Amino acid sequence: MNGWKIKGAMEKQSGKKPSAMKNFLNHARMYIFRGLLAIIPILLCVFALQLLYVLIDKRVMGFLSQFVEVRQIPGLGLLLVLVSLYLIGLIVSNILGRQLLHFFERITERIPFIKTIYGVGKQLSHGLSIADGEKQAFKKAILIKLENTGLLVPAFVTGSIVHSETKEEYLFVLTPTAPNPASGIIFVVKASQAIDPGWSIEDCLKAIVSVGIISPKDLKFQPFLKNGIK
User: Fold this and answer.
1) I want to staple 159 with a disulfide (CB 3.0 to 4.6 A). Which of 3, 11, 172, 197 is the partner?
2) Is residue 147 part of a domain?
3) pTM for the full predicted model
4) What sign for the dihedral angle of Cα 169, 170, 172, 178?
């Protein structure tokens, strides 16, 4: 009888050990994964800073050292680039600067190869203008209701037009592809098909770039206001 008790106790103890080991492995795996998720943004920032330092800072300082003796201070080249971009932005923002820019564009249009390259660069800069608060390419984030399916597709309003006869408002919308919102398909839809979810453009962009992992906090079903886009 005592032998059966000892055997049962041994089986019970041996059953606890794998369970405790399994719990420990699950615990360790969970926190290792959380640590990995926490360090990924930090590593990306470090990599980006190192890339900026190698591609911009060192090259700018190397270029300047050919003409003047410059003390090698980490980050000075990048700072000079930012100051230069700021000054260029001030220049092209006034009337004289815009006239000089248009004059340069007219020159590039007469050179076949340069015309193509400049056109591609201009389209790229126009696409990046969505980050400019004063010149925003996307007017509003909306959801397009697909008839007979019940599906809602996120889209950005880029413009609007009114039908000359029915006076009904139509929207030019970009339905972006994930995870690159700069590409997509342009549709012309009725304003009545558009739903205002109450999202900002930034919230919608985050959801598209993260393929839905980073989603807006709330969802509303508000009708799109007529003539809401100027």
Assistant:
1) 172
2) yes
3) 0.48
4) positive
| Nearest-angstrom CA–CA distance, 84 and 158 | 31
How many distinct structural domains can be found in the chain? 1
Give the three-state DSSP class for 49. Answer: helix
Identify whether 159 is part of a domain. yes
CB 170 within 8 A of CB 198: no
pLDDT in tens, the chain (230 residues): 544 444 454 545 544 455 788 888 888 888 898 888 888 888 888 888 888 777 788 788 887 778 777 777 777 888 888 888 888 888 878 888 888 888 888 888 888 888 788 777 776 676 556 545 555 667 888 888 877 777 888 888 888 888 888 888 888 888 888 777 667 888 888 888 888 888 888 888 888 888 888 888 888 887 776 544 54
Q: Which domain holds residue 164?
A: 140-223
Return phi, psi of residue 171, to 5°: -115, 140
How far apart are the C-alpha atoms of 19 and 12, rounded to whole Å? 11
Classified as helix, coil or strand, 187 is strand
